[in-house]
User: What shape does this take?
Amino acid sequence: MSSSALLSQIMPILIFVALLLAIIGAVRRALLWSQGQKSTIHWSGILAVPRRYLVDLHHVVARDKYMSNTHVATAGGFVLTALLVIAVYLFDIAAQILNYMLLASTMLMFIGSVFVLKRRKNPPANLSLGPWSRLPKSLLIFSSSFFFLTLPASGLLSDLVPELFSSNIAENIAGNIAGWLMAVVLIAGIIWGLGEMFFGMTWGGPMKHAFAGALHLGLHRRQTRFGGGQSTGLFAIDLAEDKLGVEKPEDFKWNQLLSFDACVECGRCEKACPAFAAGQPLNPKKLIQDMVVGMAGGSDAKFAGSPYPGIEIGTHKGGAIIPIVNGLVEADTLWSCTTCRACVQECPMMIEHVDAIVDMRRFETLEKGQTPGKGSEILENLIATDNPNGFAPASRMNWAADQNLAVLGQDVEKADVLLWIGDAAFDMRNQRTLRAMIKLLRAAKVDFAVLGEQECDSGDLARRLGDEATFQRLAKTNIALMSKYQFSTIVTADPHAFHCLKNEYRDFGGQYHVQHHSGFFADLVKKGAIKLQANKALSLTYHDPCYLGRYNGEYDAPRYLLQAMGIQIKEMERSQTIARCCGGGGGAPVTDIPGKQRIPDMRMADAKETQAEIVAVACPQCSLMLEGVVEPRPEVKDIAELMLDALVEDSTNE
Amino acid sequence: MSDIFRRDPRAEWIARNRLHPMHKPVAEGPVRGPSGLLRKNPHAVGFIGPNGIKRIDRSGASTGGSATRQSAKQTEVILPLHKVDEPDFYIVVALDLVSGRLNGHDKDVLGLAQKLANIDEAKGAVVAVAFGELKEENLDVAGVDRLIHFYTDAYQEYNPEQRCADLQVIVKELQPRHILLPDSINGGGDLGRRLAAKLGQRPACGVWKVNGDQVVCRASAGKNDITRTLPTLMLVLEECSEPVSETRHQSLIMPLNESQEINSTIEDQGNISVDPNAIPLAEAGFILSGGNGITDWANFHSTAKSLRATEGASRVAVDDGNMPRERQVGATGTWVTAQVYIAVGISGAVQHMQGIGKCDKVIAINTDESCDMVKRADLSAIGDSSEILAELVSLVEQNNNEKGADHDQ
Amino acid sequence: MTNNNLSVISLISIGEHPTSRRPRRAEQDARAVELGLKLAGERLKALYAGTIESPSIEVALRSYLGMGLAEINILNLSDPADATLALAEHLKAERPDMILTGVRAENGESSGMMPYLLAEQLGMSVITSIVEVSSIDKVTQQAEVLQALPRGQRRKLKIKLPFIASVDMAADAPRQSAYGPAMRGKLVMNQLSVQVEDTLRSKWQINEGQKRPKRLKIVKAKTAADRFKAATAKVEGGSGKIVHGSSESAKEILKMLIDEGVL
Ligand code: SF4
Ligand code: SF4
Assistant: This one.
């Protein structure tokens, strides 16, 4: 029996075994996911997988051109190769065209793999090592093995080989030996390749991401994220349940568990994470990998990426029915997150880190009562006074004593615009912004009113600190209050309230047309209702608030306004979708987990790099955080304040 | 310093020696017993007139000063003596006497007691009950007509049950019209409530105003006022009344049936020494707080140590890792209530100023005269903080040494 | 430190938030529960004397459950009844080693008399303003406690069991109340035999707390010179004194420190 005959006999067996093992692995993996809790299954999403992969996923990957092309070549090559290999070698379909296609696909994959390998020379810190360093080699071996296997069959070599090996006996023997050798090497390569690509895909190798990733893209918990949509509001939980929040990996929804398996350990989230950069003990990538460890059981010792800053790898263990916090993950890790969503925005696999973190925080707060730092105090205040600092609710309008504001229910019953004040009412710095806003609204002759003392905190902070109960109470109170009055739009200067009112009150029956003041004023400027001097040549940079930008996709309105004043914005390197958080979200200033630096200091350093003299902000929390940076530093001004400076008073109607 | 009672052995010797030429003027003044208690010689009252008849000058003008402190008091105005020889009723006041002296609260309670004793031209006597050490010399001008003093060793300690039993005896004997105690954490609040429970009386607590036969009490933890009729037993707040200021009183020792000793269930094991830095910031009475204007933190810590002050910090100092987070003062840290707050190198961010809003006296040490902290401060020292602190430390040490030397005399 | 055969009861009441006036977990009572939990763990019993008139009061009461209590015993007393008799009745049957409570209530008369009256009724010792129970000796029937004195000072006391202690604000802050356990914990109603009406209180007049004027320094001038001085002296308030130079500054500071009596 010749070596090639052996090859052709052994191939179907190898592939069959590999596929069989892969299927067994897939079932096992699926069983792991099924430990999770019930959640709607979006079957229709499965059909959309190719589109989601090619459009949505690559939209994210394409931010890194190199990697995007590499991935298209490698992944595309692999999918084709795999299908063709099954067709040719398992089902023995002997169409020459398939062989040619196979050669082409393996070549494509090979080229892709070379680039992967190149990337892996001196890998940046955010990439994982270990099995992930093996992957490019496996890719090369897989593609080249099948290339060489197919080469003879394709006929391109068939003329060559007999000539080479059959001219005389001695040569024949030598050729035979060489042939056997080659066959052995080829088989070894194919076993390796199949092992990594088929077996490893479902048994936990790096290729798992392809299998779990494809399913995850289809069955994603936030179907509306695909096709350019947005879905950033947190999911509500039923407060009557026996357990609130996530304690053990099995308490996650099954599709969350699936999503964790989709992680490719690309570390884009890690690169984007402000808490990680500040040296706080959080690394979103490691967190997702820890969840994978928890789901399957084991220790984090095998993790081959960067650790949580300050926490050694290999010291934590977990399992599906073992509590996560303080076994697998330290509580401080969860509480370091600012919920800035930079990780989610960057993740090519569309993994929802913030959802997972908040789910676990909910258990810490609602079941264990262990919100760290000033968290418990703040929550108690929110419960007792509807504002985080425990001020008398009756003093909510004290700041506006001189403003003559129309209060709904007292002075008027309806207005075009409901001006949402938020907790800036209690803060002297942000009262300046509010006053500026009111002057602008009056200049534009907008019919607006406020809720007065009855307004409550939006619940943003309570919810991000895991206190869903308080959030829901505040939301329901506010919704009931607003249902008494008529207005067409809510306008607010606080992106956190904006986000809650717009995206999170919906689950409790509050559907509103909400605008951030930047968007609302931009419309007014476009309509000509507000005229701005276009000659303000300020040296200025703009800081995107997370809850306005990444959460609600509003990057243009504030920039439009600044440009309308004639300002050339000196953009920071991290701006728009990749803007760095100010450190003020998600209750991070409240829980105050120590790190090596402070996030606002880092953000202010970003701003200083642009040489700007003013940092324009569009969020009360951002102004507090950035103004908290020690001077000398650029001045911090809200867009509304800048607009007021540039306002052209319309004297004709006076 | 001038109020400290010091024995004057020479004066005492003269007082004992009737043949001494100076005997008369010295012996006429009040003499103190070994515990510092006033001892009056009823025979020494008055003087012999030119016709050989004993005269008593009730105006008080001729009473000589105390033999012990003649020099210091010579220029003082001598207040008219208010005498109650046969009182119609008694008003009992149990004093706190923190470290043996009357504090403001005690004086206010005595003031109220005198007001009640003289209401509608009545002739009541204020009986002050003192437990333990009594170093106060000015009981007379504070409004004490009679004094009952328990001073055996047992009273040097915290023995509220014994004190309560003693008060019960006094109440039984004197049937006072009113019993007043300071509603304080220094013992009065506790003792008064014990007594009320024992007597089965309902006291008025947190009394801050007396209007005729109505009292106004703080209730609901300070949120409400209750107006009710004047009861027998009252626990009164500070500044419930003006202290006595225009009269002098007899402060006669009052004899009392021996109090019986009771079995105490509480045993005082003594105060435990608390490291100033172990005191929670919110409770600390004296805080030395550092900000980013500090260059020499070692100096700062040693200053805090020698001043025995609790350390605080501004947010920036904490962020920079110079101080631990739990030391942060301000709206985002701890709200403090110190009596004296020294802010070193803190310019005064809004949040910080909010956090020190309840401090009594603020001292700023800063290089920048225009900063917000200086505007708020009661005293501002402009200059290099480490120099000022070093100077302060040496002054304080000098001061301590002097005090130490004083005690040795 | 949880002691296995120690029986501890914490008396709890409904507090009132100082600014919003909403019912809440009373700060001192919560500290009493915290201390009790540290001493007796889950065997700590909690007792509430009062009614549950509104859902918000129930929420406030439940927030004690959120600290980790399995249940709260309720003596259903209609306000403003005198709770002491009913409490004493109930506690006599329980015979606890230790009863913990706040120093005073956050609403009502808040006279702080309750622990004393109970002690009188039950024949127990009473001690006020404790911050910590450092040890308990069941053999000698004695406990060692720390009592709060002003400005962070502490006094160590030995006291006979059983006793009633009121817990000071300076004690360890109460743990956070968790919503889940709070909602799931049980409120156990107890039937009552005594029902007393507070006749005295009905005659009281209760108003919003007035702001007390700060006492002014009254200058009682004895001589014409004094009167002149008093009339021309600079009014207190306004901005403070500013000094320059380190030795001058140090002297002024020292003077103020001595005047304020903090040295
Ligand atoms: S949301 Fe922001 S802070 Fe939180 S893990 Fe993601 S990147 Fe980090
Ligand atoms: S979570 Fe997403 S971004 Fe982070 S490493 Fe995994 S795949 Fe990459």
User: Anything to note?
Assistant: The first strand of chain B starts at residue 31 and ends at 32. Residues 60-74 of chain B have pLDDT under 50 and may be disordered. The pocket of iron/sulfur cluster (ligand 1) is lined by residues A 272-275, 282, 284, 337-343, 353-354, 581 (CB under 6 Å).
